[in-house]
Fold these 3 entries.
Entry 1:
Amino acid sequence: VEEESVSVFPNPVSSIITIKEIHSSSIEIYDVVGRLIDIHQSGGGEEHLDMTKYTNGVYFIKIIEGEKTKTFKILKY
C-alpha cells in the first residue's frame, strides 16, 4: 500500500471514519491488544466504516493490497 494513496480521516473519530484508497483491498480492524475485531472488503475508491459499535479507545486499521500493507492508529472517542 502506497502511503500517499491512502488517507484515513477523521482521527480521532466518534462515528464514521472515511478511508480513501486507490485499489481494491482488505480492511482489518484490530483492538489495542492486537485482536482482529472486524474485516471489510473494499472494491477501491472510498469506504465509510461505522465506528459507533466500538467502545472508546485505540484501534488499528490495517489496509492490505496484495502483498503490501499499511496500518493506521485510530483514536475512537
Entry 2:
Amino acid sequence: MKHRYIKNVATLELDEGKCTNCEICIEVCPHNVFDMVNQNFTVDKKLGIVDLDACMECGACVVNCPFGALDVNAGVGCAYAVVRGMIMNT
C-alpha cells in the first residue's frame, strides 16, 4: 500500500539552484517522494518532487543532502502517521 498523508500540507521544498542531481535524497526517502524527471521536454533529467503528498516530513532528505538543496518543517506528516498508526494499531 502506498502511504498517503494529509493532502497538500507537506512543507518539503527543493531549491533547484542548489541541487546537483546527486540522487542521495532518492536513496534515503522512505516513501519515494523524489525521482529523476525530464525537464522542459528535454532528454536531460533533473531531480524532482514527484509525490509531495507521500512526504511524511521525516527530514531524512534534508539531513543527507550535502548541498542544502532541500528544506522541510518536520511535523504534520509524521504526526499524522504516528496518530494513524496508534489508532489502527499498525
Entry 3:
Amino acid sequence: MKTAVIIGGGLGGLFTGAILSKEGFKVTVLEKNMTAGGGLQNFNRFGMKFDTGMHVIGGMHRGGNIYRICKYLGIIDKVSLKEVDNNCTDSLYFSEDKTTYCIGKGKEGFIDSLSEHFPEERDNLKKYVDAVLALTEEVNLFHLRPSSDIFPSHSTEFFLAADAFIAKYITNPKLRSVVAYMNPLYGGRGDESPAYIHAIISSLYLQGTYRFVGGSDSFADLLVSVIEANGGTVNVNEGVEWVEVNNRHVDYVRSCKGNSYQADYYISAIHPCTLFTLIPENAFPKAYRTRLNSIPNSYSAFSVYIKLKPNAFPYINHSEYYMTKYDEIWNFGKPNKAWPLGFLFMTPPEINQGKYADKALITSPMLFEDVIKWEDTTVGKRGVDYETWKDEKTQHLLNCLEELHHGFTACVDKINAASPLTIRDYYGTKEGSMCGFSKDYKNIPLSQVPVVTKVDNLILTGQNNSLPGFCGVPLTAINTTEAILGRNYILHRINEITND
C-alpha cells in the first residue's frame, strides 16, 4: 500500500485524497482549520449555519462531469442537492436602466430568454452558444475523455480574451455585458481572462445549476468518508508548519502539534505561495519561486451573512446578480473603481425548505488593496476603525439590495460580515484570492502551474494549477493523481464505472 500526505483539507485536498484512497493509497490529510472542506466549510452564527463558499455548483446533472466523478467515488446517491428554477436559473438586474434579465436553463432556454430582450440578436446568440460549446470540446479533461496529446492543439478562439470572444459573436453592447455576467465566478477581468475559461464556466451553467441543501459541509463530509472508509485519516486543527526537503525530495512534514508524517508522496493543496513559507528556500529553483510569486491573484470578496426574521422574506430558488453599469461588467478586478460594481444575492435552501427563507447571503467582489491597511492584523484584533469600515460597506450593499427588494432591510434580524482579510486568514490564500492565480490569455503558460514540481515526491493540486471552482478543482485532482498513477489511469477508471 502506497502512502500519501496531503497538506490542506480543502476541496482539492479532499478530492485528491478520496481518489487516491479509492485506488488503494493510505492517505493522511492535514488541515489547519477546525473542520475540513475549504470553500465547503460552514460557520455558525446566530444559531444557524452559513456556507462560506461553493454556493452554486454545476456539473452535477446526470451524466455531468462532477456527477460522474462522484459516482466513481460511490457518493452520488448521498449528495443532497436542490436544482434551481428551470425558467430562471439566474436573474440579472442592471441599476443603470432598472432592467432585469432572467436566464433560462439549457441552450434553448438561454437563447429564448435573452432573445425576448434582444430579438435582433437571436441568430447571434445561437452562434455564440455553439461557439461556447465548441471551445469546451477542445478540453478532453472537461468531458473526462482520455487523451494521448501531451501538447494538444487548439483553435484560435481558444486563446482569445473572453470579452473579445463574446464581441466576435454578439453585436449589442448591453447583451455582451449580460452574457458575461458570470465572470466573477472565475475572477474574470477585461482583456485578460481567456475565452476557454469563460466557455467552460458558461457551459456548466447552461446545463443547469444546483445548491447544496442544508449546508455544503455535508459534501465535504462525504469526501472525508471515502478517505476514512479506505483506511485514511483527516486530521483537523493540525496544519503543516514545516516541509523538510533534502536533495529535491521530501523527507517528512511536521504539523503545528509537533507530529511528523512520512509518506511516499506529498501533495500540497494550499496556495503555492503559502507553501513557499513552509519549505526550505533551496527546495525550488529561484526562478520558479519568482515566477509564482509574480503571478497576479484573482480578486477577493466582501460577504454579508444575514439571519432573516421568521416568515418575513420569501425563499428564492435562483441566484440574483446586481450590476451597476453595463460597461463595468469586466472591471471587478480593476483598481480605482467605485465599490460595489455588483454582487451576488441568494437565499440558501434548508432541508424541507418552505415558502420563506431563514437566511440570505450577499457576496461582492473586492480588491485586497481595500483592506491593505489592516493586513498585519489578526482575526478579532483589527480595531474599531476596521469594524466601522465593515459596517459602512455592509450598509452600502443593503442600500443597493433595496433596489432589488424594497423593504428587505426590515426583514433582517442579524448580520455578520467578512472581508478579504477573513478569506485570507480562513482559507490561507494569498491576498484572500477567491479563484487562485489570475488567468491571462496573453500568457497562458504563466497562468497554468503544472502539478508536478522539481521536488520528486511533491505534487500540487487545487485551483491555482488550472480551472477554479467546484468543477475545476476536481478535474485538477485527476491531473494530480494521474501524475502518480499514470496518464489516463483515473479517467479510464471513471469511464469504466460510469458509462452506463
